[in-house]
Structure formats: structure tokens, C-alpha cells
Design the sequence.
């Protein structure tokens, strides 16, 4: 399927590793020029060198309220246009609700929710001009609550609601806003959990991964590239009638409506 993304410009936050890195690789393969944003300059520059399209590295901390505006302004100065914003940055702390302090909650909302919101606000006028799109990478914890994921679930639920609100505005402004809810994706973070699980049971990581997946009633863990392929589709005109959608990419883990 030809996506006709060649020459367009995307900002990808959290691009240095995991899902964000896979998204950057997939969009670059489709011919998009990229602004790669994350805190790790070394990883971003290594990624940029490996891609065939023009990339502009922004080693920034999106928890700083001034950063999203600066990234968008730098994008417009460098490329002169913006067609797609992918909000992927943000990790939240798991743990016992009664032991998670205010700082952990503030940090969880600061990057994933407020960072994404500020990026959307800064990018919006340019996306209106380009008839562009926003794709928020959120997570199934925003749909289904879990005792060990109180911060992440709350942050994700807020970002899903923001997606719906901005999609509503986007009808008039010509900007499509959608969200993807990854399930358990085989990123470095998940692999660390698998290794811990294996060590606790004296088994090997491959067996532990299968046991963990089956415990979630799914066949296997997902791959970052499987999230990235949905991003590329949503960014294209093949998804021109998709607005305000929340797409669960979780192997069937979410069984609620």
C-alpha cells in the first residue's frame, strides 16, 4: 500500500528507543523527514545516522513547560512545515498506591500528559495549515484499571480523553487526532521485567515471556514495529476518515468495549 508520505515532516517524541524508535524507522522508510525528540542525544544521533531521510535531532526534556514550543519552532525553522505530531514520550512509575508519593504522580503527568498537551497546543496552528494529524501513543492501562498501575492508568485515561477532545476540535480545523493503545510490547522495559520474572522462578527468559503472556491471556508480546505500522497508516490519507479513534494494539488483552 502506497502511503504517499514522502517529503512530509513529523515530530516523534520519545524517539530514542523502543516504540518511538520503531515509529521513526517506519516513517523514515515511508519517506518522511523527521524531528527526533528525547533526552538522550547520543541515541538520537545514532538513530538519525541510520535513517535514509533527513532527520533533525532535538535532545530535550519535555517536562520543561517551555520545551514543546521550542521544539515546534525549531521544526518550522528547519523544515518550514509540520504534517504529523507523534506523542510517544512518557513512562510512569508502577507500585503500591499507598507508597507512591506526590512527586511520582507529578512526574507521571508532567511528561506524558502535560508534555503531550503542550506539544499539541504548540503544533496545532501548523497542523491546521498542513491539514495534518496527531497520533498519541497511550496504553491499554487507560481503559482497564490495575492496582499496580494507578499513576499510568490515570495518566493514560487523561490522554485518551484529550485525544477525543482535540479530535472534536479537529473536525472544524482539519486536523485528525487519534490514539493507539499498545499492550505488552517487547521493549527494553518489558524485557527487564521478563528477566526479573525468569530469575525469580529459576527459568529462562523465553519461557518466562511465554508464561507472562499466557498469564495475560494473550499469545505473545507485541513488537514495536507493529505499533509503528499503525502509526504510518493513521498518518496517511488512507485513514482520512479516521478521527477520534482509539485503537487497541494488544493481542486481544482488552476485552471490554
Sequence:
Amino acid at each position: 500500500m502506497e502511503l504517499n508520505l514522502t517529503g512530509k515532516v513529523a515530530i516523534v517524541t520519545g524517539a530514542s528507543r523502543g516504540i518511538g524508535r520503531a515509529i521513526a524507522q517506519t516513517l523514515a522508510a515511508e519517506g518522511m523527514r523527521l524531528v527526533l525528540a528525547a533526552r538522550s542525544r547520543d541515541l538520537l544521533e545514532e538513530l538519525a545516522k541510520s535513517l535514509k531521510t533527513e532527520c533533525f535531532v532535538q535532545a530535550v526534556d519535555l517536562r520543561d513547560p517551555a520545551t514543546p514550543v521550542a521544539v515546534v519552532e525549531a521544526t518550522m525553522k528547519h523544515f518550514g512545515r509540520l504534517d504529523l505530531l507523534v506523542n510517544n514520550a512518557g513512562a510512569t512509575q508502577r507500585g503500591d498506591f499507598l507508597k507512591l508519593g506526590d512527586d511520582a504522580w507529578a512526574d507521571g503527568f508532567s511528561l506524558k500528559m502535560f508534555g503531550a498537551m503542550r506539544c499539541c497546543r504548540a503544533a496545532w496552528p501548523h497542523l491546521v495549515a498542513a491539514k495534518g494529524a496527531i497520533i498519541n501513543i497511550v496504553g491499554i492501562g487507560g481503559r482497564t484499571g490495575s492496582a499496580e498501575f494507578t499513576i499510568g492508568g490515570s495518566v493514560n485515561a487523561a490522554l485518551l480523553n484529550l485525544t477525543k477532545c482535540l479530535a472534536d476540535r479537529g473536525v472544524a480545523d482539519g486536523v485528525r487526532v487519534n490514539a493507539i493503545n499498545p499492550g505488552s510490547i517487547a521493549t527494553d522495559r518489558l524485557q527487564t521485567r521478563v528477566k526479573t520474572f525468569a530469575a525469580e522462578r529459576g527459568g529462562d527468559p523465553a519461557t518466562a515471556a511465554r508464561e507472562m503472556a499466557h498469564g495475560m491471556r494473550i499469545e505473545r508480546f507485541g513488537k514495536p514495529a507493529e505499533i509503528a505500522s499503525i502509526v504510518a497508516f493513521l498518518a496517511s490519507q488512507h485513514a482520512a476518515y479516521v478521527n477520534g479513534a482509539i485503537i487497541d494494539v494488544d493481542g486481544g488483552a482488552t476485552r471490554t468495549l
Remarks:
- The chain has two domains: 9-185+225-248, 186-221.
- The first helix runs from residue 18 to 29.
- The radius of gyration is 18 Å.
- The chain has a mean pLDDT of 95.
